[in-house]
Amino acid sequence: MAEINLIKAVIEEKTKKRQERARLASVVVFIVLFIVVVTILIVGGRFMLAQQNKNLDSQIKTAEAEAKEAEEIEDNINLLNSDYSKIKAVEKTSRDWSEIFSKIAEATPTDIQLNKINYSGTAASTSATKKVTQEDKLQISGFARSRRAVSLFQEKLQQNTDIFSSVEIIKVGTVAQNEISIINFEIEAILKKI
Fold first, then answer.
1. 54-99 pLDDT, tens per residue?
2. Do 1 and 89 belong to one domain?
3. pLDDT tier, 2 (very low <50, low <70, confident <90, very high otherwise)
4. Which residues are CB-contacts of 194 (< 8 A; sequence separation ≥ 6)?
5. 139 pLDDT more than 70
6. SS3 for the chain, per residue?
7. Could you tell me if 109 and 84 lie in one domain?
8. Domain end among 44, 73, 93
9. Percent over 90 (pLDDT), the chain
10. Number of folded domains in the chain?
11. What is the CATH number of the domain that holds 106?
12. Does the pLDDT value for residue 132 go beyond 50?
């Protein structure tokens, strides 16, 4: 009689099935772990990208604010330069009246008394492009003790060539006051063009 051991085949079959289940379980565990790791990497990567995006947005906003501020500063500088240019242009077309009056005072002899100085011509311009179309001149009038004093005054004024282009006596007359003869005069002094 031959004995057939069916238990051994059943045991081997159960062992194979366990091994297959164990392999299948390890593959499932590996796949689940792989999915978890990939999910963590994706979520972590997205979080890092979101943080970097926030940082970049913040840097962009800061750079835009700085650019706007720099643009405003540049506009202010351009405005100041424009104002400075206008001031310089006006300065070139204006006269130094304190210097002119100082020169007139220095040239006035002691025996002459000035009673009026009239200006005619173009006034100091507020527009930098305004051209001088007529001569600027001063009409200086006063009293003197002698005609020689008037001539001396005219000569001293004429010596100020940096201010006056010509100085002429246009009127000389005699006025009697309290039995004293006084010379009244008028001098026209043409100012040099600026």
1. 999 999 999 999 999 999 999 999 999 988 888 877 777 677 888 8
2. yes
3. low
4. 92, 93, 94, 95, 132
5. yes
6. CCCCCHHHHHHHHHHHHHHHHHHHHHHHHHHHHHHHHHHHHHHHHHHHHHHHHHHHHHHHHHHHHHHHHHHHHHHHHHHHHHHHHHHHHHHHHCCCHHHHHHHHHHHCCCCEEEEEEEEECCCCCCCCCCCCCCCCEEEEEEEECCHHHHHHHHHHHHCCCCCEEEEEEEEEEEEEECCEEEEEEEEEEEECCC
7. no
8. 93
9. 51
10. 2
11. 3.30.70.60
12. no
Q: Residue 129's pLDDT is what?
A: 46
Last residue of a domain, one of 68, 93, 118: 93
Within this chain, do residues 82 and 46 fall inside the same structural domain, yes or no?
A: yes
Question: In angstroms, rounded to a whole number, what is the distance separating the alpha carbons of residues 96 and 16?
Answer: 117
Residue 54: predicted pLDDT: 92
Determine the length of the chain: 194
Taking a C-beta distance cutoff of 8 angstroms, is the pair 190, 132 a contact? Answer: no
Q: What is the pTM of this model?
A: 0.51
128 and 171 fall within a common domain? yes
Distance CA 66, CA 48 (A): 27
